[in-house]
C-alpha cells in the first residue's frame, strides 16, 4: 500500500509517499498499521484511542470512512487535523 501524507505527518515519515505492508481489512486497520510503522504520526491522527474527527482519509482518491474496506494495493492519503495558532495577544 502506498500512503501519501500531508502537513506535519511528513515530519513523521520523512517523505511525502511511503510504502506500508498492510495486512488489515479497513481504513481503521490501515491507520493502526501506519502509526505502528511511524509512531511519531500518532498524535496527529489519534486523540487517545480514537481517530481525531478532523482527520481526512482518501482511498484511491475518494474520501473514505474508517469502516470502509481497503485492499493492500490501495493508495491511501492522510490529511491530519490542522492545528490553529493561539489567539491570545
Automatic annotation (TrEMBL):
<dbReference type="InterPro" id="IPR016155">
    <property type="entry name" value="Mopterin_synth/thiamin_S_b"/>
</dbReference>
<protein>
    <submittedName>
        <fullName>MoaD/ThiS family protein</fullName>
    </submittedName>
</protein>
<dbReference type="InterPro" id="IPR003749">
    <property type="entry name" value="ThiS/MoaD-like"/>
</dbReference>
<dbReference type="InterPro" id="IPR052045">
    <property type="entry name" value="Sulfur_Carrier/Prot_Modifier"/>
</dbReference>
<dbReference type="Pfam" id="PF02597">
    <property type="entry name" value="ThiS"/>
</dbReference>
<dbReference type="InterPro" id="IPR012675">
    <property type="entry name" value="Beta-grasp_dom_sf"/>
</dbReference>
Amino acid at each position: 500500500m502506498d500512503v501519501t501524507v500531508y502537513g506535519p505527518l511528513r515530519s513523521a515519515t520523512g517523505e511525502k509517499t511511503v510504502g506500508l505492508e498492510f495486512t488489515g481489512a479497513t481504513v481503521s486497520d490501515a491507520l493502526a498499521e501506519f502509526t505502528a510503522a511511524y509512531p511519531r504520526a500518532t498524535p496527529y491522527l489519534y486523540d487517545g484511542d480514537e481517530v481525531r474527527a478532523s482527520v481526512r482519509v482518501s482511498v484511491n482518491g475518494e474520501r473514505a470512512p474508517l469502516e470502509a474496506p481497503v485492499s493492500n494495493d490501495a493508495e491511501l492519503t492522510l490529511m491530519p487535523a490542522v492545528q490553529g495558532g493561539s489567539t491570545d495577544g
